[in-house]
Design a protein that fits this description.
CATH topology: Ubiquitin-like (UB roll)
Order of helices and strands: EEHHEEEHH
Strand content: 15-25%
Structural class: alpha+beta
Number of domains: 1
Strand order of the largest sheet: 2-1-5-3-4
CATH architecture: Roll
Largest sheet: 5 strands, mixed
Radius of gyration: 15 Å
Number of helices: 4
CATH class: Alpha Beta
Length: 117
């Protein structure tokens, strides 16, 4: 299946400065393996030393967090979109930046995609 993997701005330097990469894969795990074999520098940013996805890296399949699906075994369909979303901690959310004064620990993935573009 042809899937698109969205690369967030902070990781683009490790992925040939591309904002997205198209891969053939049947599962999320296959897509991530293909991505990290093509761009080996990405591996240390996505996986810990035990080969597990880092706790602060969130992977979304068409806006669904794979942790609530079948994780890396989640099957893919043609034209699915995987988004890599690193967690944001210790900063200010969009409401604070917009002057609304509300602090938050995380930002919804759809908001991040707008920021990362």
């Amino acid at each position: 299946m042809a899937v698109k993997v969205m690369i967030p701005t902070p990781l683009r330097q490790y992925a040939g400065k591309q904002d997205s990469i198209e891969l053939e894969a049947k599962t999320v795990g296959e897509a991530l393996a293909g991505l990290t074999s093509q761009y080996s520098e990405l591996r240390r940013h996505l996986y810990n030393d035990d080969g597990k996805i880092r706790s602060f890296v969130n992977i979304y399949l068409n806006d669904e967090d794979i942790r609530y699906l079948s994780k890396e075994q989640t099957p893919l369909n043609d034209r699915d979109v995987l988004s890599i979303v690193p967690s944001i901690a210790g900063g200010m959310a969009l409401d604070v930046l917009a002057g609304r004064g509300r602090r938050a620990g995380s930002i919804h993935p759809s908001a991040l995609r707008c920021i990362c573009r």
